[in-house]
Amino acid sequence: MATKVWDGFIRGFHWLLVIGIAVLYFSGEEGWLEVHFVTGYLLLALMATRLIWGIIGSQTAKLSSLFHSPKAILASFKSTATYVGHNPAGSLMVLAFFVLIIVQLVSGLFTTDDILVEGPLVAHVPYSWAELAGDIHHTNIDILLIAIAVHISAIVIYRLRGKNLVKPLLTGNTAEPVSSAPAMRSGLIAYGIFVVLSAILLFTWGYEPLMALF
């Protein structure tokens, strides 16, 4: 019997993040500035929603469920035990992604190239801070791409070991036996928060680049 382990928002968050990071990277590389900024604001709203949902959301969405001892993390690399939600090693990867993505998005708010690109908060900090933010923004994306490659490799390795990590993030369910079904909340609540935060950020910072797309 299948057990629901991921709510609708967590599943949507994962795939929206995949699409958003791809668009953010390619728009930055191709110089599509309006697309880059609008995508960045939407991803910022998405990450903020995920953090809020990590406090008020479903049991497997809780941020507290992502923290494990080093001993548990090391043991999970060898263990074939079934976990409700992310295992300790997977939780560490999730936390790493959260940090890298937030650093990328926040540094972009303070980044300028003195020609065309200027984040909405550049004018509020010393120029040296903007230069530092620009360096972080350009270096951090490379680290993020490496982390993505490691993540994909881990998914492949687990698949070869007989564990499909992708399917539950599509269906929300696992067919593996669990001790008890996790408590779920409707993902529609989180999507509502996401829409509100997106509207605020786009109205505050993204109105001009958004209008430029139409």
Automatic annotation (TrEMBL):
Domain Cytochrome b561 bacterial/Ni-hydrogenase span(s) in chain numbering: 5-172
Localization, UniProt: Cell membrane
Transmembrane segments: 12-28, 34-56, 92-110, 141-160, 188-207
One Gene Ontology cellular component: plasma membrane
Its membrane topology: Multi-pass membrane protein
InterPro entries xrefs: Cyt_b561_bac/Ni-Hgenase (IPR011577), Di-haem_cyt_TM (IPR016174), Hydrogenase_cytochrome (IPR051542)
A Gene Ontology BP annotation from the UniProt entry: respiratory electron transport chain
GO molecular function, one term: heme binding
Keywords: Cell membrane, Membrane, Transmembrane, Transmembrane helix
Protein name: Cytochrome
